[in-house]
């Protein structure tokens, strides 16, 4: 009777381990590898979006994106909350970013 009990417990532990391993693999199989090309394409897309939305040149848009750590959602959130002048000022001075 004791052997049956231990066997059931061992099987349950083994099932738990297999279940945990399966969950781990499922969660981690959703990871994608970012290639240099896809990263550059995403960067270019964000850069163009900022350039068009704020009517800025590329190097000024890049300065904004770098200042906001390429978090375009944060950049547009600050734009909405504080306005373009404040956004530019916080990223490096309104005069500097508006000079061409």
Please provide a written account of the structure:
The structure is a single chain. The chain is mainly α and 100 residues long. The protein folds into 2 domains: 1-31; 36-98. The protein is 81% helix and 0% strand. The protein has 6 helices and no strands. The chain has helices at 2-28, 36-54, 58-67, 72-82, 84-92, 94-98. Helix 2 packs across helix 3 (58-67) and helix 4 (72-82) crosses helix 5 (84-92). The longest helix is centred in the first third of the chain and has 27 residues, at 2-28. The mean pLDDT is 81.
Question: Could you write a compact summary of the structure shown?
Answer:
This is Putative E3 ubiquitin-protein ligase ARI1. With 100 residues, this protein is mainly α. The chain has helices spanning 2-28, 36-54, 58-67, 72-82, 84-92, 94-98.
Report the end-to-end length measured between terminal Cα atoms. Answer: 87 Å
The coarse overall form would be elongated
Share of β-strand residues? under 5%
> Segments where pLDDT lies below 50 for 5+ residues?
none
Percent in helix: over 70%
Radius of gyration of CA atoms, rounded to a whole number: 26 Å
Separate helix tally: 6
According to DSSP, the number of beta strands is 0
Question: What's the pLDDT, averaged over the residues?
Answer: 81
What tags apply to this protein structure?
100 residues, mainly alpha, 6 helices, Putative E3 ubiquitin-protein ligase ARI1
Topology (SSEs and partners):
Blueprint: H1 2-28, H2 36-54, H3 58-67, H4 72-82, H5 84-92, H6 94-98
Helix pairs in contact: 2-3, 4-5
Organism: Artemisia annua (Sweet wormwood)
Protein name: Putative E3 ubiquitin-protein ligase ARI1
């Amino acid at each position: 009777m004791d052997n049956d009990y231990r066997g059931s417990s061992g099987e349950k532990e083994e099932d738990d381990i297999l279940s945990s391993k399966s969950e781990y693999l499922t969660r981690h199989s959703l990871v994608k590898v970012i290639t240099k090309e896809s990263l550059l394409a995403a960067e270019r897309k964000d850069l163009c979006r900022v350039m068009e939305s704020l009517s800025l040149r590329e190097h000024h848009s890049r300065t904004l994106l770098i200042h906001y750590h390429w978090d375009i959602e944060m950049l547009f959130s600050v734009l909405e909350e504080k306005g373009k002048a404040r956004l530019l000022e916080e990223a490096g001075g309104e005069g500097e970013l508006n000079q061409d």
